[in-house]
Amino acid sequence: MKREVMVMELSGPCRSQLMIMTFVLMNVMVVDYVASHDYGETLSKSILFFEGQRSGELPLSQRMAWRKDSALRDGSDVGGRQHQIQFPNGLLNHHAGKFMGSDLKYALEAIRWVTDYFLKATRVPGVVYVQVGEFYGDHRCWERPEDMDTPRTTYKVRKMKPGSEVSGEIAAPLVASSLGEVSSNVY
């Protein structure tokens, strides 16, 4: 027995209504998907992750009790490895604080941690320290910052060997963090 398949062709108002219904249904599904995620918890865990990456003299407010001071002679490692460069460390506070609840103090502390490092890197007039550590050697080394035994070579830019890109990458978050501090009145 041969079956025939009936194909219905939609046109005119029926087609428009079906398209509108499909569009509405898809939007409802997207809203439901987005509403099912707790972005506050995600942000909280992100801040906690970066707090765990700190090295240097750790503050008393450090929530990772298992972490200890490290790299006390050359600055902090904000990138999760021993090799320290300036480019990936810029961060901008854009009035998101009102949505952060109790994690705002930790976010501001994270901004302050990076800002303090940048201020130390630019302390000498006319010199900007842009990297600490050996790129390839540090990337092959997997150890806790507390156990760091790789060379902590420092690299700098200055008038004779300029680096306007990295200097700008440091200046921008310094300005942004100062605006965040003024608006939050925390520091």
Automatic annotation (TrEMBL):
Q: Which family does it belong to?
A: Belongs to the glycosyl hydrolase 9 (cellulase E) family.
Tell me where in this chain the Glycoside hydrolase family domain is found: 39-79, 102-178
Keyword Lipid biosynthesis belongs to the record: no
Annotated InterPro entries: 6-hairpin_glycosidase_sf (IPR008928), 6hp_glycosidase-like_sf (IPR012341), Glyco_hydro_9 (IPR001701)
Keyword Hydrolase attributed? yes
Report the source organism.
Answer: Actinidia chinensis var. chinensis
What highest taxon heads this organism's lineage? Eukaryota
Q: What is its EC number?
A: 3.2.1.4
UniProt KW keywords: Carbohydrate metabolism, Cellulose degradation, Glycosidase, Hydrolase, Polysaccharide degradation
Q: Name one GO biological process term.
A: cellulose catabolic process
One MF term in the entry's GO annotations: cellulase activity
- Which named protein is this? cellulase
The record lists the catalysed reaction(s) as:
Endohydrolysis of (1->4)-beta-D-glucosidic linkages in cellulose, lichenin and cereal beta-D-glucans
